[in-house]
Amino acid sequence: MTAVSRPSRRSFVAGSLAGLGLATLGGVSTASAMTRPPRILVATNEPWGTYHVRPLLAEIARRGWDVRQLVPDLSQIAPGETVPVVTPDDDPAADLLVVTGATDWPADCAATYGRHTPLAATSLAYLNATEAPRAHEFERRLRLVTSSSAAEGRSFAGHLGTRRRVRVVGSPQTDTLPTPAPEPGTVLVLTSVTYPDQTGGAAPGTQLLLDAAAALEAAGKHVLVGLHPRENPALWSRYEISPVPSLQASARAEVAIGIPGTVFPLIAAAGVPVVGCVDPRLVVPEYLLAVCSSLIDDAAEALPAVESATLPADLEDVVGPVGGSAARLLDAWGRVRRRR
What we know:
The chain has helices at residues 9-20, 30-35, 57-63, 104-113, 150-160, 206-218, 246-249, 263-269, 286-290, 302-307, 316-319, 325-339, and strands at residues 24-25, 28-29, 39-43, 66-70, 85-86, 96-99, 119-122, 142-147, 167-168, 186-190, 222-226, 240-241, 255-258, 274-277, 294-296.
């Protein structure tokens, strides 16, 4: 006699739901949604700021995932952009929406996709700890909050107005730290953005940094400029502008000086001390100032600050774990998607 196994309760319920047409999400069965690569949309605080997603591309490709950045339109997307982009008008399907803050563009995207799409918040660039006006729109929907470091996480939680646990995953940019090969007398100048544009705002302090760079050059230093992706290169044309991103360029420098920003902890993680140029109007999280060897508000202070620069004794709180960060972040996104 042939034994016939009895169907499990789970298979019975799944079969019943399928027969009723209820075991679907957006027209796709739950089973098939879990077996195909996840479809993830990312909305950043800088609407066209694809450079925030770019460090994830290698790990995304290794996994074969479908991750795209939501942009308002294609007007600010450069030819040859490597980050896949899509607009809400294209009505892209999503298993997960990731926002990098509670500013207007991410909040608009979250409202567009509604409560049927799981929502995660990931810090890819610094935000001040003051709660954003639209943060309340996220609180009941967030299933995950991540940051690069514990210090960044505290600031990000304040921006989101949440007491949820912030999962520290590290910065994907530190997955490929450069091998130090400092060139004697070379100082890396880290710019911010001088003029706001459609993509995002600007940080004050450029004139101080320009004057500091001139003072360093006059003292015999070689000035190597690491441009912010949105900075106007014409302002810095008298100096050597690095053809590679600032983190990779730091391998050539003995020290860095600039307007404190997201890249500061990354430069310190690469073993290069940083000097901060601060303008009275500049407002940044305290941890970005703490990573600096010193802070200056006068160009005359640049040379002594650079020549005496040292790394802080403890960087873990500000930098977070180094290596494997892109994988940890995508793992966290994947778990949220699976819980759907």
